[in-house]
Design goal:
mainly beta; 2 domains; 5-stranded mixed β-sheet; elongated
């Protein structure tokens, strides 16, 4: 389900540009989750912002700002928590189909370049890409998160582990004597 307000008619874009407010709430996240169930959002987030679209010759510059809350799972304890996020982005859209490239390293300038074809620019994919880029590589509910016990699965932030100490005949028992 594509949002109509994120489809921009190329003929309507001027050098002065168009401003598009963004309110990416529960409905937007749920629609995205329905299309791609593998997304790392256990619950819908709430992201607001704006996009400014302006024409430079045949190229289109998309400038945006996003800020809000993403609901993520902690990589240590698996608890769902609210991650505050904020980012600005600039993407230059050039006309034509995306060129087919063999494996090659992209330059920094290539990372802010994309392609459009036809008379409509779809911003939905660009916005989704920017939201994914807001996700930390290792989401943590807190820097001090102690995680889960690898043996019994107890959340060490809430309760102490009741597991027996590792048996001395374990092949890893010698590692317990090492000090860092």
């Amino acid at each position: 389900m594509k949002r109509r307000d994120l489809q921009v008619d190329v003929a309507a874009v001027t050098e002065a540009g168009l401003d598009i407010p963004l309110n990416l709430g529960e409905d937007w996240f749920l629609a995205w989750q329905a299309e791609d169930p593998e997304l790392p959002f256990p619950e819908p987030g709430a992201v607001q912002g704006s996009v400014h679209v302006e024409k430079h010759g045949r190229d289109i510059l998309v400038r945006g700002h996003l800020a809000g809350i993403l609901k993520l799972s902690c990589s240590r304890c698996l608890a769902v928590y609210a991650e505050p996020v904020q980012a600005d982005f600039d993407i230059l859209l050039v006309p034509g189909p995306e060129p087919l490239m063999d494996e090659e390293e992209l330059s920094e300038a290539d990372l802010d370049l994309d392609y459009y074809s036809g008379e409509t620019v779809e911003l939905e994919g660009l916005i989704r890409e920017q939201v994914v880029l807001l996700i930390p590589l290792k989401p943590l509910c807190a820097e001090t998160c102690r995680g889960l016990c690898p043996r019994c699965g107890a959340d060490l932030n809430r309760e102490p582990c009741t597991c027996e100490a590792a048996k001395s005949e374990s092949p890893f028992a010698a590692l317990a004597k090492l000090k860092i």
